[in-house]
Structures
1.
Amino acid sequence: MHGQCPSGSKGTPSIISTSRHKLPQLFAGAARRVSEGAYVLIGNEKAMVTASSVMVTSCHTVDAAARLRETKLIEADIVSLACTPL
């Protein structure tokens, strides 16, 4: 997808987000899914809530979902909003 507009549309606004923070890359295969826009990062059949994350903040959302599961017994789906039209 090099050299293309992130959303695949040159007629709508886009944003490219970068971070200097040292954060883990969660899933190597997720990079190819960015063109899908929003996608399920972690699906859970027992989910009671859905948490969304944007780009590099996904690691924080995964951590928060783990804490919900451990401390409150609340299961979560996690959706990545990697490339969403504005």
2.
Amino acid sequence: MKQLIRKVNHPDFAVKISVHEVEDLKRSVETGSNIVFLGLIIGALILAGSFTLFIDHGPYIANMPIVSGLQFLLATLFGFLAFYNYIKK
């Protein structure tokens, strides 16, 4: 009994526990946080594209400023990327 207490109280004593469910939870949290982060970026691009629609000067394509069109295009591409990553898991 004394030896057990001595081992537990020793500074080098460590217990390693491996639980497979914790690894699955970790992977799920990482995947979910990546999708949420990508969604935040997509939302920011859409919002910025909406703000830049009201630019009065600069080149236009299809009655829309090029800057705004590029932001909407990037948001669309990131949306497809997020959808692909969601389906892939």
3.
Amino acid sequence: MGRLSSSEITKIATRLNNIVNIPVLGEQKEQIIFEKIINSIDTVLYSILPDEIYDTIHMASDGITPTEAGIIRTRIEKIVAEKINIPFVSEEDELKLIRAFLDIIEAAIQTGKNIIDSF
């Protein structure tokens, strides 16, 4: 289990659903799949980021500098990409999804921002 609420997962999945199309599936089924993907990535992030950093996605008063957030994002992208496998999309689209999600998290962990402000 990760740190995102079910409504946050749904909102992020909707955003990512607009970035990548899964062939053969309708939008409702795609949405469900994207929610599962976001939940999986959230779980990976929860396992590799200290609570003191990942918890800041919900607190605009806490956080780290944009430079620090960028450094963390760069470091975790490879780890997340290695742990997440989405067999029904191309490697290119898989990386697009991971990067789009990490863009949101990178913004959310910065001081003065939170997850809601980030998408």
